[in-house]
């Protein structure tokens, strides 16, 4: 079952509990961003292998990992806590991509593609956190 894209629209609790992590849109988007970043990082020069490349891979992995760790916590506050960590990892991934553009390791077109993905993931994370807060208040 696909999770409703518009987080401001209500999601019934019965539909939410039928979700799995692999159908959660924010998690899917974070994984897609991770894959795109890792694919891009593989094109960086060898001298960046242990700095820019390794750091991008780790921070990109951390975005989806934080969402996964918070998913299905017994308390919404736990889920919110981990989801609040995800934007930090997202920014940690994004900033060096702009450096890669400046250093001409990636094209402007590729940078803009990644930036669009970054912005989409950030919106979904913020929407998911807002949803969890609303759900917590309803309990």
CATH topology: de novo design (two linked rop proteins)
The amount of beta strand, in percent, is under 5%
Run of helices and strands = HHHHH
> Can you give the helix content as a percent range?
over 70%
Alpha-beta content class: mainly alpha
Q: Any idea what the radius of gyration is?
A: 16 Å
Please render the helix and strand layout as text:
Layout: H1 13-17, H2 25-41, H3 49-70, H4 76-102, H5 108-138
Helix pairs in contact: 2-3, 2-5, 3-4, 4-5
Which descriptors apply to this entry?
disordered N terminus, de novo design (two linked rop proteins), mainly alpha, single chain, 139 residues
Structure description:
The protein has 139 residues and is mainly α. The chain has a single domain, classed as de novo design (two linked rop proteins) (Up-down Bundle). It is 73% helix and 0% strand. It has 5 helices and no strands. The protein has helices at 13-17, 25-41, 49-70, 76-102, 108-138. Helix 2 runs antiparallel to helix 3, helix 2 (25-41) packs antiparallel against helix 5 (108-138) and helix 3 packs antiparallel against helix 4 (76-102). The chain is elongated, with a radius of gyration of 16 Å. The two termini are 24 Å apart. The model is unreliable at 1-9 (pLDDT under 50).
Quick rundown:
By secondary structure, this protein is mainly α. The chain is built from five helices and no strands.
